[in-house]
Amino acid sequence: MTIKTIGMISSYRGLEKRCDWLWQQTPHQFGTWGNIRMQAIAPNPDFLLMYQVDFPKPTQHKSWLDSFRKKQHKPEVKVNSLLRDVPKEKIIYLLREPPLDEVVEFTKQNYQEAHKYCGYISGPDDFAPTPDYMPAIWYHSNSFKDLNEMPPAEKMSSCSWITSGISRTVKHRQRLNFLQSLQDNEIKFDLYGRDLPTWANKSGELSNKWYGMAPYYYNLAIENYAENNWYVSEKLWDSLLAWCLPIYYGGPAADKLLPPGSFLRLPSLDEKGIAYIKEMTSSPDAWYQAKEAIAEARQIILHKLNLLNWLSEYTAKF
């Protein structure tokens, strides 16, 4: 079997020099999964993954990320110089940010530009050239082997929430308002995250999300976007891989990808949702009832939904 090399470029900060990107998502060395090897910075890859790439826009437009950043004076990068001579039919564009109202026009412009360079273009929204779920990535530092084989960690506490203080969109602010309501109603959970407001009763920041999830029966997994049939993010994958029972707020995509009973559906971000969290976290009974479904969901995430598995299946068509 010939191993195909997958290169990667992204507009996410910090990824442009990561030679080991996604290597923790496979039990094999150097990012190998099936018929592929993920080598993000390979100079001459067989395929190129454009992972949430924001294309240069005319000066009157901003990229998805730049719309929230302070103005930076950087020389414009020519897209062709980044493609490493990979032919168009072997360039894959995956957009993973949700179609929030504030950025939906930027997203549409990205898709339009991607047609110039890419043979496959997909994103978690109805107006994507190929609407589809985002293949799974996760943010635990544990090895694939550990995640695949480990039993549940000892559960020490009821519920946690790992989130941030980002407030740049209406949906971000809605989430922060819900956080404040939970704390005002004295709902018991441990809060972790960066840049949280001064009023937030937080436990601190984490270098590894595992430590803020694995010791808990329940984890609040609240998406920034819940209005279509495609969007579901690592918030759910991270929670399940840590053997938590997620209390999930998001769209119906999760129901189509994961087995019944593997997560709890938070009804709303209001008084009804607060009451639901209070009821479910009052005892670990729901976690014990869901344990087998969580175990099944973890295997689906690790082996089927895994972005490396998606890339392996996609490139096998060539």
UniProtKB/TrEMBL annotation:
Give the record's keywords alphabetically. Answer: Glycosyltransferase, Transferase
Q: Gene3D superfamilies attached here?
A: Glycosyl transferase family 10, C-terminal domain (3.40.50.11660)
Coiled coil segments of this chain: none
CC annotations in GO: membrane
* Domain (Fucosyltransferase C-terminal) ranges: 155-269
Could you cite one Gene Ontology molecular function of this protein? alpha-(1->3)-fucosyltransferase activity
Give the top-rank taxon of the lineage listed in the UniProt record for this protein.
Answer: Bacteria
The record's similarity note reads:
Belongs to the glycosyltransferase 10 family.
Q: Tell me what this protein is called.
A: Glycosyltransferase
> Which organism is the protein's source?
Cyanomargarita calcarea GSE-NOS-MK-12-04C
